Amino acid sequence: MTKTVEAFFDGEVLRPAEPLELQPNTRVRIIVETSESKGKPRSFLRTARSLNLEGPSDWSERIEEYLYGRQSGARK
User: Fold this and answer.
1) Per the confidence metrics, is the pTM higher than 0.85?
2) For every one of its 76 residues, what pLDDT tens digit does the chain have, with 9 covering 90 and above?
């Protein structure tokens, strides 16, 4: 059987991120492949800005109208 499992190394042992369907004392072969983090997680705003979305310049003022098709407050 071959299965890929995410795991975390706590400094002493590898801990699977999900339960394994193995009997106690089952011999397994582990191939370690680290997934590198690319620094700090990006904020939502930074991610949104990187998408280069295009739209009306008044989105923040008329969000109700653009999302739901209804005018808000002062524009009724």
Assistant:
1) no
2) 788 888 888 888 999 999 998 999 999 998 888 877 667 777 888 888 888 888 888 988 888 888 888 776 655 4
What are the residues whose beta carbons fall under 8 Å from the beta carbon of 66, sequence distance 6 or more? 55, 56, 59
Residue 12 is classified by DSSP as S
Contact 60, 67 (CB under 8 A): no
Nearest to 6 by CA among 14, 27, 24, 39: 14
**The tokens 């949104």 sit on which residue?**
48
What is the identity of the amino acid at 16?
P
Q: Could you give the count of Cα atoms lying within 13 Å of 5 in the half-sphere of its Cβ?
A: 19
Strand partners, 8: 15
